[in-house]
Amino acid sequence: xxxxxxxxxxxxxxxxxxxxxxxxxxxxxxxxxxxxxxxxxxxxxxxxxxxxxxxxxxxxxxxxxxxxxxxxxxxxxxxxxxxxxxxxxxxxxxxxxxxxxxxxxxxxxxxxxxxxxxxxxxxxxxxxxxxxxxxxxxxxxxxxxxxxxxxxxxxxxxxxxxxxxxxxxxxxxxxxxxxxxxxxxxxxxxxxxxxxxxxxxxxxxxxxxxxxxxxxxxxxxxxxxxxxxxxxxxxxxxxxxxxxxxxxxxxxxxxxxxxxxxxxxxxxxxxxxxxxxxxxxxxxxxxxxxxxxxxxxxxxxxxxxxxxxxxxxxxxxxxxxxxxxxxxxxxxxxxxxxxxxxxxxxxxxxxxxxxxxxxxxxxxxxx
Length: 367
Prior knowledge:
Mean pLDDT: 74
Number of strands: 6
Shape: globular
Order of helices and strands: HHHEHEEHEEHHEHHHHHHHHHH
C-alpha cells in the first residue's frame, strides 16, 4: 500500500499556512483532530521506521540526514511527561463549524480499514468556550476556549516547524507524533509485556530485516562521514530515495549490516578502528568504485560510443536482454554488425553493474 503519510502531512500545512498569526493554535488543533488517521497511517507504514526521542530539534537536525539514509520513516516523539507539573492555563483557538480534513474524501477508503495502535493517546483537554470568535483565512469560523490544566505541544516543536523543520516535515517521511505516550510510561508497559514503539510499527532502533542497533552502533552511524550530505536539503534526499528505491535499499542494507557488526564500546580503540574500516570500505571505497566505473564508461572509444547509439536506435533491446552474448550476436547480425551489438551489450551490462553497486545511491546524491 502506498504511504498515506505525505498526503496527511500536506493537509497540516494547507490548514495552518493561511493564518500565520494563529499558527500555534492551529497546529495544536490539527494534531488533536487528526490523531486517529495519523496514528493509523504510521502504524501501517512499511519499510524501516526509527523512533527518535527529541528534546532538542537542533541536535536532531545534525543527525537526521544520516538517519534518513538508512530508514524510510523518522518518528519524532517529544519528551513531555504529560504530568501535572507540566500543565498550565491555556487559551486555544478552535474551529467550531464542521471541521473536516482536506484529505478526507481522498483517503477515507484507505484509512477505514486501518487499525489504530491500542496505545494511541487521544489528547482532549477539558475546555470551556469564551465569547470571542472570528473567521479564519482558511475559511473556518473559530472561537477561543480555555483550559486550566493544559499540556500544550512544546514551543520547541512549534518554532522548529515554522523554520528549518518545515522542510523535514514536508517530506511526509519525518513524522511528529504527540499521540505516542511519553517515555516514562515505557518501563511499566514493558514489565507487563507490552512493547510501546513496536505497537506503532517502530522501534528506538532499526528493525524488520535488520539487526537492531545498540547505542554504540547508533553512535557509529553518527561518526561516519557521508559525502554530499551537508550541501543537500532533506527534500532532495527524499526525492532521490523515491527515484532510486532499489539503489537506496541496497545502500541501506549494506551500511546497516556493517554497523550491526560493531561490538566494541564507544570511544575505545576497537570502536574507532571498526568505524574507520566502515568509512574506508563501505563509504569511501564504494564511492570510488562507482566513480571508477563511470570513468570507464565515459572513456570508451568514439567508434564504440557511436555503435552504442546506433544500436539503441535500431534494435529492440527487449528481444535479447539476459541472453548469452554469443546467442545474441549470432542471432541478430553477422559480419560487420557483431562489434556493434557486442558494444551495446557491454554498455548495458556496465550500466547495470553500476546501479547494483552499494555506493551508487550515495554517489547519485552528489549529482
